[in-house]
Prior knowledge:
Elements: H1 23-30, H2 59-72
Amino acid sequence: MVYAKDHSHNKLNPELFLAEANPSLWAKEYLHPEYNASMDMEWVRPECWDIYNVPMFSEKFCDDFVNEANHFGEWSGGTYNDNRLQGGYEPVPTKDIHFNQMDFKSTW
């Protein structure tokens, strides 16, 4: 994959963050091969119009994203206190990492 001049050297998989810099290569690498075919939507049955499954990401994306999150490593504590949130209160405690912490929000 071609890297942008401004990619971050502290990323395990810097190409994961380059969707805007090189969208066609990013899509080829990280979108599921059947993702664009699913946009046709003619396959959706009338009796199940609100329930369907669309393959979006490739296995490589899933593997790279999980590895990147683990590499970043700043998981929340899974408690009601979360300093990342305004007010610091988490009504549904989970152990997670926010996209903006990993600099992935603009890619998403």
